[in-house]
Amino acid sequence: MTGTWQLVRLALRRDRILLPVWVLFLAGVTYSTTTALEELYNTQQSRDLLGATANANSAFLAMLGPLHDWSSLGGLVVWRWGVFSGLFIAIMAMLVVTRHTRAEEEAGRTELVAATVVGRHAPLAAAVIVAGGTSLLIGLLQALALTGKGLAPAGAFAFGLSTASVGLVFTGVSALTAQLSENSRVSNAIAGGFLGVTYLLRAAGDAAGESGPQWLTWFSPIGWTEHVRSFADNRFWVLLLPLAAFVLLVGVSSYIVTRRDVGLGLLPARLGPPHSTISTPFGLAWRLQKGSLIGWSIALFAVGVIYGSVAQAVGQMVQDNPTLGQIVSKIGGADAMVDAFFATVTQLIGLIASIYLVQAILRLRSEETSFRAEPILATPVSRWSWVASHVVFALVGGAVVLAASGLGLGLVYGLQIDDLGTVVPQMLGAALAQLPAAWVIAGVALVLFGLFPQLTGVSWAVVSASLVITLLGPALQLDQWVIDVSPFTHVPKYPDITFGPLAWLTVVAVVLLAAGFAGFRRRDLTT
Amino acid sequence: MTSAISVSGLVKTFGSTRALDDLNLDVQTGEVHGFLGPNGAGKSTTIRVLLGLLRADSGTARLLGGDPWKDTAALHRRLAYVPGDVNLWPNLTGGEVIDLLGRLRGGLNKQRREELLERFELDPRKKGRTYSKGNRQKVALVAALSSDVELLILDEPTSGLDPLMESVFQACINDERERGRTVLLSSHILAEAEALCDRVSIIRNGHIVETGTLADMRHLTRTSISAELAGPPNGLTSMAGVHDLVAEGNRVRFEVDSDKLDLVLKQLVSTGVRTLTSQPPTLEELFLRHYEDVK
């Protein structure tokens, strides 16, 4: 453990902008969500109505989880923001841990450090301290933000600690995945896949309702935060589960550290073919991007299957519940409810898919900064075709992952209502309608790459902004012009899909992509 | 002789740093041209401009009769490049990278590929992430040397190779010379340049300070002489062209400008010479002189 504190300081120095942004973002959204919900639901009557609909609506249940306590403002905040807060802090912990462990090792910098007076466990310990400490700080500030709004301290701290607990669990998960593979991309992919499963397990459990497999939520670190029931029951003891998971995961990881060589993973590296048949830049891009494309397609197909299986329950619930039926009939009946569910779900899927598109575009930048673009561009391959070879994965690959989710939705729902022929094309259409908006996001990423290569990372801020604006914009009562900034705002809602907005979104995307191409053809290669 | 590379008045700035400052470089077709200078002198920047990876601020650069920025793809068909920092794709094997780069360049000579793999003792089945720096360089070298191209641009290609592999590399470059290819070899290993290069250019702070054959350069510089004479070394001190004279009794050590060598030797012979050793200036001395003079 010698040298851990020096490494902690090094990590804090390197992340001196990144970490404060995460902390302020997660604490700030907690505060603004509270303010917004306070204004939105300022009467007991409005809260009761929300309570009745939120827990009866499978779409809400799957996306946000159950609303345990609608009598207090705190309960509303937990319901509206708790799951997302957990998701965001998990991503933070994952990126921070991998960045300071496996990515460092892969780059050969750990070797440089390991040769100095630094203990074998120090790099992992430092990463765990930084990610875990940041998680706790975020939790503390969230609790302070809530008490600052005059909410009950016990509930506020239950909520803050719940968020922090997800950060701790994913600190542990990434500590472990960093040991498995020699490749930081793979480490992040495994941890990210686990996060997806975590979210989906609780989505399925929550949406299933009393009769279904509700116990699934007990297998999800995000589900645990729901079981804390902040502001309703404040069951602090549930937090022992994430704490135990954190200790166990970090313990196993540090055991593996003592058993393996620096630079190597637990999954063995194998010999490969001595010859290759790749002969075009696209062939190379396919080789580099196919794993991610296949993984995302499977993941989004699974998302489609899960939401598709919930859809019928949405309609069912309305028929079972006469009171709810009355409310719903005003807005168009059970069918309208199911349609609204699919509208929400496809929008969510579009947002998730835009992460894939940006990741596919950013591959260009990582190839450039790691000096791997240089030997390719020193062959007769033109800059245009090199960029195009990766951009294809964003444009066409984006269509593939969206179609996969649409297929998942359509197949499962179609089988349930016994009408595959109608439902599958409908769902494919609804999912693919998100594509132009996702292309716009990809276009922004390519513009950054082509014109401002040093700022390519800002693409993630663009993705996050679209996520926050689209998912939380109405709840945060953002001004309409802010909401209009997200391209997903302009995608026509299922089932009223019109081509006008899709056409102009496509035009915007084409203009952005063209600007990105032109910019890259004129600029220097930089690192 | 025609020029394979001809650069004049090249300027490239990065922010406030002037990486290339009025750089002139001429590489003749068919020669092995050494491009010498310490780290940060501008070698890689020059090469990147020649490859169309960077755009020059001003000046002209001609490569194989074309413009490196505009005719990029056509020119790259006729050259192969080994970068200074070879980074491979972690999940592609060395063999796959060799084939890929060769194919993108328009084909590679399979027989030579196998020959080179054997000479460099490289296992093409290993994944990119498991190669050491030297082995990554070998991958890039095999890819470049097994392509049928007119011009090889090598940026410090041997910085990670061991002495055995260094000599394999030198043999390979001599083969390339015999095949009539042009080689631009950037290096800071002077022994390598001395062994391989027909002509060298020395770069300092983005400017070429010296260019020519090694013989030419030696002509402009000093030879070190140490001798034991039959009598006291009278008259040497006052002779033009003699520097750093150290005399101990009848023993002398000094350096002499190459164009005064004849006169000085006559003076020594007139005194009577018992033993004599004369050393031509090494490239290293040439190099150090250029760098120290200006300090």
From TrEMBL, chain A:
The keyword Repressor does not apply. The chain crosses the membrane at residues 17-37, 79-97, 124-145, 151-176, 188-205, 236-257, 293-314, 340-362, 391-415, 427-451, 458-477, 497-520. It comes from the Bacteria. Keywords: Membrane, Transmembrane, Transmembrane helix. The keyword Manganese does not apply. This is ABC-2 type transport system permease protein. It comes from Lentzea waywayandensis.
UniProtKB/TrEMBL annotation, chain B:
GO terms for molecular function: ATP binding; ATP hydrolysis activity. It is found in: Cell membrane. The keyword Nucleotide-binding applies. Residues 5-230 form the ABC transporter domain. Keywords: Antibiotic resistance, ATP-binding, Nucleotide-binding, Transport. It is a peripheral membrane protein. Its main location: membrane. It comes from the Bacteria. One of its GO terms (cellular component) is plasma membrane. One of its GO terms (biological process) is response to antibiotic. It holds the Pfam family ABC_tran. The keyword Coiled coil does not apply. SMART domains: AAA. Gene3D superfamilies: P-loop containing nucleotide triphosphate hydrolases. Belongs to the ABC transporter superfamily. PANTHER family: ABC TRANSPORTER ATP-BINDING PROTEIN (PTHR42711), ABC TRANSPORTER ATP-BINDING PROTEIN NATA (PTHR42711:SF5). This is ABC-2 type transport system ATP-binding protein. It comes from Lentzea waywayandensis.
